UniProtKB/TrEMBL annotation:
Keywords: Coiled coil, Hydrolase, Protease
Lineage of origin: Bacteria, Pseudomonadati, Pseudomonadota, Betaproteobacteria, Burkholderiales
Entry-linked InterPro entries: Peptidase_S1_PA, Peptidase_S1_PA_chymotrypsin, Peptidase_S1C
Coiled-coil regions listed in the entry: 39-66
Source superkingdom: Bacteria
Record bears the keyword Protease: yes
Record-given protein name: S1-C subfamily serine protease
Pfam families xref list: Trypsin_2 (PF13365)
Length: 380
């Protein structure tokens, strides 16, 4: 009897141990299953995030390639014929409240930059022309005009606009490289690669608020590594009050103001009264140069202002959410004291929370390098 009882106890102990082992193994397997599901979910979310980053980067590259190839003549036709579009309307002035004195002071030193250039074949001097069929320009699959070095079509005129701001008493202005050298992007770059042509600048000029005459501009220096350039202005650029460069970087959450000329002449014309616009429309030979002259004579060249906050700061970029669009490239990103924090350089299409600015320290370095190079060149 005792022997049977002992055997039964031993059996029960073995059974309990077996059940314990089974439960432990089940728990481990369940944990592994949960971890596997979590890992798979995490991997999927990481993949989605990486895809979003890749999309944003692609949008940025596309925008930078197209930023300086916008044709203002088409914008003039649209504005004078159909009014202001929704994209530009998002960029509104905030010249009220506590920022009004700052805006009033700094806006006078923010210039509209206009450029006209053609592309020339170096050996022959022939310019690129439009391809005409039955007297009409032919468009390619990319909806851009077809070009040729032969034929009798009109010479193709490249136009661009951008923003710059005065930084010293010698008429130096800071802007983006793609504003100073617009042919390095978009259709012009493609044409240079396809035809071996080179740019010939016909006109590079600036307008400052409160002045009725444009001033001549030349390229004083460009950065080899950043989207930055220095321009040398004459006339009004020599008397404008230089903007102050901040010596301290911004922090995420700081408020910023962005000044510039987004959409080029389009926004300026949209703010004009009907009588002014009607006068432009009645001129059969109206173009973007004449429109800019008329705007200056009427005192209508004023930068648009938008307000936002800093989202991220790195050695390479100041990311902010102040609204802007093409044409605003090269404008100053300011703190509420009116000090320059960055130079606006690009937007991400469809993602308004990530507009990019080049940190102002890089512009200061470029100015120092250009100054030293100029002094060296002036030595006997």
């Amino acid at each position: 009897m005792r022997t049977s009882t002992r055997a039964d106890c031993a059996a029960r102990r073995h059974l309990r141990r077996a059940l314990w082992v089974v439960l432990c193994v089940a728990a481990v397997l369940a944990g592994m299953g949960v971890q596997s599901l979590y890992t798979a979910d995490l991997a999927e979310r990481l993949a989605q995030a990486q895809a979003r980053v890749n999309d944003l980067d692609q949008n940025l590259q596309t925008l930078r390639a197209q930023a300086s190839t916008h044709d203002d003549v088409e914008s003039l036709r649209s504005v004078m014929g159909h009014g202001f579009d929704g994209t530009a309307a998002r960029v509104s002035a905030v010249e009220s409240g506590s920022v009004a004195p700052v805006v009033s002071r700094v806006a006078k030193s923010v210039a509209l930059i206009q450029a006209r250039y053609v592309l020339i074949d170096p050996p022959t001097g022939r310019p690129l022309r439009l391809v005409l069929v039955k007297g009409k320009p032919q468009m390619g699959a990319d909806n851009e005009p077809r070009l040729t070095l032969s034929g009798q079509g009109p010479i193709y005129m490249f136009r661009s606009t951008g923003t710059a701001f005065v930084v010293d008493a010698q008429g130096t202005l800071v802007t983006n490289r793609h504003v100073a050298l617009p042919w390095e992007q978009g259709v012009a770059m493609q044409a240079m690669q396809s035809f071996g042509v080179r740019p010939m600048v016909l006109e590079l000029r600036g307008f400052l608020p409160g002045t009725v005459e444009p001033f001549a501009v030349s390229v004083a220096g460009v950065s080899a590594t950043h989207d930055l350039a220095l321009l040398r202005g004459s006339g009004a650029a020599l008397t404008a009050e230089p903007l102050t460069m901040s010596t301290l970087p911004p922090s995420p959450g700081d408020a910023v103001l962005v000044l510039g000329y987004p959409t080029g002449l389009t926004a300026l014309i949209a703010r004009a009264d009907k009588r002014f616009v009607s006068g432009l429309r009645q001129q059969a030979d109206m173009n973007d140069q004449k429109a800019a002259d008329a705007l200056a004579q009427a005192g209508l060249i004023q930068p648009l202002v938008s307000r936002g906050i800093v989202a991220q700061v790195s050695a390479a970029a100041v990311v902010h959410d102040a609204q802007t669009t093409f044409g605003g490239s090269g404008g100053p990103v300011l703190n509420l004291r009116g000090e320059v924090l960055a130079i606006n350089r690009a937007i991400l299409a469809g993602f308004g929370g990530a507009n990019m600015g080049v940190p102002v320290g890089m512009a200061s370095e470029l100015m120092q390098a250009e100054s030293e190079a100029r002094k060296k060149a002036e030595q006997p």
